[in-house]
Amino acid sequence: MRERWFGATGRRVPELALVGDVELDGALVLDAIDDVVQLRAAFDAGTPVVVRAGSAEQIKAALARPEVSCVVVPDDRPELLDLDLTELTYG
Fold it and tell me: Is pTM, for the whole model, over 0.85?
């Protein structure tokens, strides 16, 4: 399982997890990555950024952002945890 830094907390978390499997206290939790200024401000402040995603495309887009610490998927979509992220990204 690939991991990422959880902001400036010194903790590492899975880059992809089910909602509830990762403690999100202190994180900026977003439903989209549209606001790049908000993403960058959180990153610069050391605040972990977590994005909720319900599709492979949303996961790919969120993980392409270096500011994102973790992507969480809904409990009813556990199959998204089995995505081949390398294949999804590079074909």
Answer: yes
Per-residue pLDDT of the chain (91 residues; tens, 9 = 90+): 799 999 999 999 999 999 999 999 999 999 999 999 999 999 999 999 999 999 999 999 999 999 999 999 999 999 999 998 888 788 7
**Residue 38 is inside which H or E element, if any?**
helix 36-45
Nearest to 79 by CA among 20, 25, 22, 16: 16
> How many residues belong to the chain?
91
Could you tell me what percentage of the chain is helix, strand and coil, using 3-state DSSP and rounding each to the nearest 5? 30, 25, 45
Q: How many CA atoms lie within 13 A of 8 on its CB side?
A: 6
| Encoded tokens for 78 | 């556990």
d(CA 34, CA 91): 24
